[in-house]
Amino acid sequence: MIIFHIDANTAYLSWSARALLERGATLDLRTVPSAVGGSQASRHGIVLAKSIPAKKHGVKTGESLFEARQKCPDLLVISPDYDLYMGCSDAMYSILAEYSPVIQRYSIDECFLDYTASAGCFGDALAAAADIQRRMRCELGFTVNIGISSNKLLAKMASEMEKPDRIHTLFPEEIPEKMWPLPVSELFMVGRATAKKLAAINVRTIGELAAMDRRQLVAMLKSHGELIGQYARGIDSTPVIPNDRILQKGIGNSMTIFYDVTDRSELHAYLLSLCERASARLRGQRVRASLISVSFRTDVFASRQHQRQLSLYTDRTSEIYRIARMLVDECWMGEPVRQLGVSLGAFSRTDQEQLSVFDRTDQERLPVFGRGEELESRSVDACVDDIRARYGTDAIMRGVFANTTIKPMEGGVNEGQFLMMGGYGL
Amino acid sequence: MKIVAKPVDAIAVFKGSGHPRPYKFRFRDADGSGQEVRVDQVISAEERRVAGIQTIVYDCQSTVDGVQKRYQLKYLVRECRWELYKI
């Protein structure tokens, strides 16, 4: 097996920088401390991507623009352009598709490519990678890092090594030399919390983690311990799965509200508009969810999350909202809410259904005004989805949103049709 | 040549096959006065997709006020728009 991991360097930033140059800008944003961030006026003021000079000042992705400016006062900040990013990602994919039919779009700026069967056509993997890299630079105007190895994990670890515009290999025989000396936090799936737990038992490098006894790791970190133990030894057997064959595991939708909400009915209204988008996407994927979770962040950036596993599967907006509202009421103590989110998981496909004795059939029927008939709420949802697909999301809305600033469907970028940075697990 | 990337009004010829060919274009100076330029010769046309934006860049030549000038025009395919790209 030969797997490539292709990762665009400082993706959002270099794409924006390249597009600006193309429009006649004289300054290349990649060469100065700069960042892509949301607008501070609507309180979306976090760093989405930063240039390499900004990184040297200690600017981190995800921190607020205020914090970033304290570290680097002359930081240039530009707004994101998601249409441009999607175009760049598509262009990147279309070049890769010339080299192999087996490509997994892991996130907007990363792809895995299975080169195993392509070697007969394009020859040596390193030469092909160099060719891909040159074409990205010349044809698309941005640089990529390419990691080459025998599985996805090692390919990803390789592409993360030295940036920008580099090709690294990390084959199993190179692990002791190239991967084991790295700090354990560099390992895929080892986050802040895990790194802290490992530091407590004096495991600081990936090599030390690889040398640990499996049973001790499992005792400490459960199944996650098993996973990172294998990763530290470079073991990963997941194939490169083209995206149309991936069953999405969760749908989430969240928003930062432009003021702090303290009123319960207003919070419910925002929650409903988030549920509207999330459940419409659920129906679009032809799945039903049985796990509903709500999360919020208060004005002092404290986060709280609450979830419930249902005994049935649902894709109905009203039902999802009813449960989400119950969850919010159970865990919200009235503190001012800055950010609100709802996410759905544990799917089953719409064409398969487990019937339940306790289904709330009474809730499924709605009276239709003036006609003395009843309509199934499922067909109402389908009807609303059709109207919105044809005439826009504002074409039909619930009464609660009339004469308010709340949109009938909140959250999401590009109408919620956007592949985010960061990926979703191998 | 320097990038100016200025939107222009343009007339182009679309033949049965091949790229559209710019025929003439009009751009406005900073003082608001418009100038019309006939494209005398298209030297080359190149499809590009820098930053994922599909464009066709034309290397052109025209005589403006008695002086022969080289410049580049750009057609942005998705936006269906012409730009004076480089002069």
Write a concise synopsis of the structure shown:
Among the domains of chain A are: 12-82, MutS, DNA mismatch repair protein, domain I; 179-232, DNA polymerase, domain 1, CATH 1.10.150.20; 248-412, DNA polymerase, Y-family, little finger domain (Dna Ligase, domain 1), CATH 3.30.1490. Helix content of chain A is 37%, strand content 22%. Chain A is built from 14 helices and 14 strands.
The number of distinct structural domains of chain B comes to 1
Q: Count of DSSP E strands of chain B?
A: 7
What's the pLDDT, averaged over the residues of chain B?
89
Sequence stretches where pLDDT stays below 50 over 5 or more residues of chain B: none
Task: Order the strands across the largest sheet of chain A as they lie in space.
Answer: 5-6-1-7-8
**Total of helices of chain A:** 14
H-E order of chain A: EHEEHHEHEEHHEHEHHHHEHEEHEEEH
Binned strand content of chain A: 15-25%
Biggest sheet details of chain B: 7 strands, antiparallel
Distance between the termini of chain A: 16 Å
Describe the structure.
- The complex is a heterodimer of chains A (426) and B (87).
- Chain A is of the alpha+beta class and 426 residues long.
- Chain A has 14 helices and 14 strands.
- Among the domains of chain A are: 71 residues, MutS, DNA mismatch repair protein, domain I (3-Layer(aba) Sandwich), CATH 3.40.1170.60; 54 residues, DNA polymerase, domain 1, CATH 1.10.150.20; 165 residues, 2-Layer Sandwich (Dna Ligase, domain 1).
- In chain A, a hairpin with a 2-residue loop joins strand 5 and strand 6.
- The mean pLDDT of chain A is 86.
- The mean pLDDT of chain B is 89.
- Chain B contains no helices and seven strands.
- Chains A and B meet through helix 1 and helix 4 of A and strand 1 of B.
